[in-house]
Fold:
Amino acid sequence: MLGYLIYEGKNRTTNSRVLNADENKIEHTFTEEGKFKDIEITMVATFWTIPVGKDVVYAEGKHIITTQNGQETATIRGFGIGRVINQSISTSYRGSFFYKTSSQDKLAFLNNMVGIFEAEVDESGNGVVKVWEWT
Structure:
């Protein structure tokens, strides 16, 4: 069942590179700031995309979450589908996140959590993301 909204963030793509030209597999790196409940975090992430249809890409990514004080971390594995909208002006992603942490404090609730996300990225590489807990 789709649970509560647990995260909102804003990101900026900082780099892209070709992983495999024959497959059009492209890697993207971004930085993000946001909040898990009331916990402010920063994140660094890398994901790759590969076309799977007209204006549709499959994406997989890995993220590292750090609390603002730098004392806690968590990781994410993400999987999703992106659809180009508005004639290549932006891409809309939907998918799932799998969280892991050894934190015993603020981020402990994320350990082994599954989240369902929606994200929008514009032509400039600016994005927004929301995540709901999947219970």
In short: The mean pLDDT is 95. Residues 2-134 form a domain with the Porin fold (CATH 2.40.160.20). Strands lie at 2-20, 25-36, 39-53, 56-67, 73-85, 90-100, 114-122, 126-134.
